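Re: the 266-residue chain
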Amino acid sequence: MTVRPVLLGIPWDESSSFRRGAAAAPPLIREAFHAESSNAWAENGIELSADNVADAGDLEPATGAAMRERIETAVSGELARGRAPLSLGGDHAVTYPILRAFARAHPRLSILHFDAHPDLYDEFHGDRYSHACPFARILEDGLAQRLVQVGLRTVNRHQREQAARFGVEMVEMRHWRDDFDPRLEGPVYVTVDLDGLDPAFAPGVSHREPGGLTTRQVLDLIHRVGTPIVGADVVEYNPSQDVAGLTAMVAGRIVKELAAQMLAGG
């Protein structure tokens, strides 16, 4: 299964719990993706261009349920056109409405999730749609058959209980091995929260958690996904916290490798 990726910017961080700023990220990730300091070739030997990676621009922001509906509608529209959204967040709350659309097109979806946090809270500060809650909503709604989380290092009791409730497979950083293979089956959706990386590699995030993944480890695991990647998102880049655009370039590289793996078809 080969899909044509389409970049879709989602400039929304209304559900951020600590520090907002991720809404400003999509244009900067897109700029890094096209940076003249690099070239258009991905590591798997695919050259990326407007011929094989489309760009739908950025959504017009709204608030609350209206924005979630706008995201779901936009993603559904791209899927109906035969294009596979590679979304540029925005905070991690955007993944829930994205997956609502994807589940209709891919009812046997598996999710590979990079993050420092499980984002499994039933609610956070009274908000069931917080960026700390998307995977609780996704699994409650039955939008995926499997969720594998890597890079975790802030798991509390409530989220362990939620993981047990939903059958989530957690790979905490204290147990990480560079040859880890999640052995995913069926269509895969990849969601990359940039705070899954160590702050040394991605300082431009709102929730810096030392002890995380390297850029190389993230890319290697993306390359090891041996089944078709049908969609993805890269979220939680906060430009106001970045250093010399470093995190933007990391995000741009991850987007490039995701797009190329989507084109390769697994």
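Residues 18 and 26 are 20 Å apart (CA to CA).
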